[in-house]
């Protein structure tokens, strides 16, 4: 049977391209100037987003007692939130990571919610449940059925159909999807009517970036792989208005490694890593007066679809990049006579600047320091002199039909299906889980129109009187902390030396943190009370007469003993609401981070703001470690008790006495798993002397200065990787692509391995990294030699931006750099290495810790007090 015909159309800002294919062969193609009516339609869509001309959305979050601290719309820009936020409703429901219910759905509560939305005029609703991608039919689908029965005209978006694991990002993506639905319906209907007018009754598809956002920027990749057979190259698509530059890896566009922001909102759409620059055939050329000479500016403004009226070669009065190409003899368009009088120096400078822009873009996106194959596509390729050497290019090709590559790619586009879920490996094997996920993804692709037989896998503010560092939104980008600032609260950071120097700072320092698996906390957000409840529990224990492992008041309490721990399953004393710190027997004057990594580096900022307490510029680890006994004070012999663990439901597990800090870790880890692998923890408050002698000093300052160095690198167009290594006296272990990730959540930890396939200087090498919440040991597979291990910090960052990528966010195909940074001296003593060295994690004696370099103690941002104030 003869191959079917397919039509591909690419509507650009300057030109609209159309192709007809039979099978994979181009039968005919045409390039036309984009008409004003089409451009007007596109412009209206863009204005709808820019002007926030969107429908309001109501969000129903199925969360029970969990994930309440950060409500829906919490990280939307304020102007967008005013338009899109209709209402939100936090109701019973939600799942744990293993599919068990956080709480059951309550039908009457949901009916009340539905009536409220209807009475308030809401018609667009998002339903999002914690861990709904694991079992969407368990709750999200049931709630949707109830909505349709009670409210037939409602428009629904179910979060599991839009995004992946990561509650806030998936919820945001679902909201954006729902608020754009009316506009999308009108757009699709316009396409349908246009096809009907042409007598075409065939199915039609809109190309997409592996999510719900419609885009044509990646169509070109499918055409290139088919026509050239090249699977690894830098692709430059030069249009009439902009150029899109990206990397082809293994036949597919390289994916962006970080969360993608759409209209200022964080989402977890899978997006290609594409750099767009203001270079196209319609780019306007300007000559500016520099020092002692004229310089040429190319773009970013463009004539767009007006090129054929405004460009010089078409009889217009605007000098464009196309005019320069014709004047330089690179193209034959319009009337060359209109540009024969152009200043030859101007033409040469413009051509030089165009090539410089192309070379700079190549340098930003290419996979290694080595030259890469370059593939040029798009009508704007006439701007590039094919006879001229291009820095960074090992070869330059223009594939067949390069002028209409996006339209060809649209016609060749493949239907996809994606599955992203957490699996309980106690009930299945990893291979079985992967096999089921592949089968489900294939079914999704077929349901979307794929042919079954063709499916394949594929600078800081310092208070002048107190010396406090008062954090601003620019200093911290943590949602919960930003919400505290928006409410008028202050986040104040003090140097450890200020403790005990004034009556207000004389007392103890509370350490608060979250305990659990990071993968779980991506989806099951905190309720906002866990760590404060744990701290309150510790204070209540002191109020009940706690002393040296004993309670003087045990009325109604069942104190248990086992596995080296004396504990209470759920400590709830009576009538403590009106107690002061003095009543509780301990005065807390500041809070501190247990570890300066991830969520736990931020949580004390939130708690300090809520309790109006300063945060000490120190932490217990100088990094993140997965287990409690690795806290510096405990290594130095400080008693962790009393200690408490609290969950979103208010359970407060208390420990009165332990044989060792490791026994505390084992007990709390078991309790934490039963709490859903996420809980707040607090220990016995530390004295000022203990903070200064057994904790890592100036940790927050270190983090701030490291971030400042990276931002400074962006500003000055230097490598952020180099900036990190220079700031921290670290070493680059490898650059390359994540080629394998094996991750499981067991015993309350995210454990696994990942492999990085080297590129550039590390070509033909594969680096293997073991992790347990944090990265533990790195070795090259070629000789199995350990090149870095704990307590030094092995960190994985985006190869281009230097953005850290946590273990729970690693995935195949990410382009990364692996760095190792030196550990603080406190962690390198023989005593400390017994607790945080490789043998503490079960590695044999031949895995020997060798420091990567000398740790640099950062200068604190908050000033130390004058010498006379020292105690």
TrEMBL record:
Annotated ranges, domain S-Me-THD N-terminal: 478-542, 586-654
Domain S-Me-THD-like C-terminal: 661-852
Domain (Hydantoinase A/oxoprolinase) ranges: 170-330
Pfam families: Hydant_A_N, Hydantoinase_A, S-Me-THD_C, S-Me-THD_N
Residue span, Hydantoinase/oxoprolinase N-terminal domain: 7-65
InterPro entries linked to this entry: ATPase_NBD, Hydant_A_N, Hydantoinase_A, Oxoprolinase-like, S-Me-THD-like_C, S-Me-THD_C_sf, S-Me-THD_N, S-Me-THD_N_sf
Top-rank taxon: Eukaryota
PANTHER family listed in its UniProt record: 5-OXOPROLINASE RELATED, HYDANTOINASE_OXOPROLINASE
Listed name of the protein: Hydantoinase/oxoprolinase N-terminal domain-containing protein
Organism: Branchiostoma floridae
Phylogenetic lineage: Eukaryota, Metazoa, Chordata, Cephalochordata, Leptocardii
